[in-house]
Amino acid sequence: MSKSNPIQMTPSKVIHLPIDSIKSEVESVLAHRNVIIQSDTGTGKSTRLPVWASKLGRVLVIEPRRVACTSLAGFVAETLSGEKGKSAADRIGQQVGYAIKFDYRFSEDTQIVFATPGVVLRWFSEDKLATFDVIMIDEFHERRAETDLLAALLVKHNAHRLIITSATLESEKLSHYFNADLIKADVSSYGVTISHHANDSQLMPSGKQLELRVKPIVELALARGGDILVFLPGKKEINVCASALKGLEEEFGADVIPLHASVTDGDRKRALHSASHQRIVLATNVAETSLTIPGIVTVIDTGMERRTHQRNGRTALALHAISKASAKQRAGRAGRISAGYCERLYGEHAPLEAFTPPELEREDLIETMLASACCGFTLDELSFLSALPDKSLNSAYHRLITMGAIEDNGSVTEHGKLLYPLPIDSLFAHLISGMTSKTNKEAMCDLVAILQTPMSVWKRKAGDLALDNVKAWNQTLCDAVTSIAVLRGEQPEEIDVDLLGLDEARRLAVSLREAFELPQWEAASCFQRESFLRNVIDIAPELAFVRREKRQQAFGNGISEVVLSRDSDFAPEYQAAIVFDQFHLAGRGAKQTTSYATCMSPLPYSWLADANIGNIEVAAQVERNGEVFDVRHQVYAGRVIAQFEHQAEGASLLRAIVNQILDGALMEGVGETSRTQIAYWNLYQQLIAEKPLAPVDVAEWLEDKLSELGVETVEDMELIGDDDLHFDGIPSWEFDDFVQTYPLRVVLPELTLSAEYFRFKRTVVVHHVCGNRKDGPKRWELPSWNGWRVQYKKASRVVDVK
């Protein structure tokens, strides 16, 4: 390892942290072996360990969240010695830096770099992280897909000293996997009093009316004193709760502060630094680990989070109850400065999962498989902490093969190398690269930038007037057209735009356009909607959905189903659409999860038919001037998207001829004779044969026979005689006796019956076919059927015939 001058802390900035008690032990072990640090959040491991490790060389710290990267880099920069008079912000990028999507502040001389897993994976694909000596994976217990893959790659490559921090995972299992020593660091606590606010002790967490349930608990905590941390599932719930708590800000003089991945730097600093007045921090589970919020006395835990899972072969984000491990982590955020309180909005004995399942077990593996291939390894070559699901592996493999991103042996293609560096889902990267014109490519870059921004960038104003005005501007109410216009600043005033979200989307658009050597969005080319959407269908036909015939709010593509979201103005007259984006809400069971389509582009059936998607089915056959034609339906996801006639040929023509024979239109009498002979042959096999043969289907037998005779056209039938279609079944000397003993049809005065035989029950059931006789048949007028029980069935009524 390349050693460098160790970083020193500025004495005035040094604050004693619980992790400091194990400093000498960590430095001693780390000099020779990998190390695992197990400790609760708040011990100081994220800020102290990188500094201690810098004695061994350049340090890379992998943080699961962007907010943690920038905040921790700033905190460490404050504690390190540097030029006098310089602020922490000025120091970032010198001794300490960070790298997140769209924001890099470090140089080759930066000794400690905090980075998100996605960024680090791309660096690994370039040079196997050759410029770093020590790699630290922080908060490994979260089991993010990218950190699990990085761990497997680092273990396989075996060229760095590793530090792994974990709060809850099995320590022995980790020690064996990373070939590391385990060191534990305890954090002192003043104790946390846990209360549950639920009528039922087994009540599970719920996302319904969170703001109404949170507000009274916040009032209670404000009266108690100290800062309050409220855990909410996402930005949407944070904004709703912030609005509901506005009155409390004025009444108590408290400050309501949002904390999520896309907050402003100002809000982030307000959340992470103490203040003289009470604070109410509304946070996602970004505050569960990595970040320590000072001054928290009360934690309010809604028990909800947004978690990824597989939905129809793709990764979806949906509301989900947290695990017991997460609940423990959240409660541990209180009790650090004084006696703490945790108020849970669910039952004390709610059946939560013990641990949150690793992302690799609940997400699709497309991105993971492509990333691994770009790093020089197939997933089969790597050892993971837990096994990857075979179904997910097979699905990812076939999807990437279809995209042309990997070879049959799993190695990456040139197209895959183009897709991987783009900071977007591989499907969207594939859509951009597959666009056949420059204008379509530009349009897709801008649309993807909107869709891949984690917050909602735009929303139509409410009301019929606003809808009418938007429709006058965007006649088809195409969400894709509106999204592209919003990014380019061309939307009407009826569209409300989130400026923070728009800024992030435009930064992504800049990155994508640069990657594809396109002009920037300010100089965007006009695109033609039809050409654009037809291009999408050609590249990714699975994005095309059609309305369900009976449930008009639902759409299917033959694989999955989505429901029209209120966020889309998709018009009722359209029967098909490209669904670019979805969100998912989970019900009580996994199968009750509902997918909502949020970005829809209407299109006519004809565009789908032109793309040759769906299956061709023969719906009927018609005869015209002696020729047979198939009436063919092009069917997609259960809907007929096109109908046309095609001259019958091959198997279809033979089927038409067979139907005419059986109907008596061709070779009169042959169809009925064949039907009778084959029916009795099947019965003979059932009742008499020692080694019964499989039943013969009369239509299939006739088709095979005509094929053997070389029939290819209707004219060929002129060369076929009745004897050519004779069925060699029951020998002629047995046939009459067998038919008399075991008739399939019995005709009596005013009553016609069909007979069904059950050999092992020795029972004959005669079914009413037609006739006006009120009473059933008498036993004496039926065939002898010696030794057989006889029953008569009419409708659902069955009686024994005596």
TrEMBL record:
Gene3D superfamilies: 1.20.120.1080, P-loop containing nucleotide triphosphate hydrolases. Pfam families: DEAD (PF00270), Helicase_C (PF00271). Keywords: ATP-binding, Helicase, Hydrolase, Nucleotide-binding. Residues 213-383 form the Helicase C-terminal domain. GO terms for molecular function: helicase activity. PROSITE patterns: HELICASE_ATP_BIND_1, HELICASE_CTER. It comes from the Bacteria. Residues 26-187 form the Helicase ATP-binding domain. This is DEAD/DEAH box helicase. It comes from Enterovibrio gelatinilyticus.
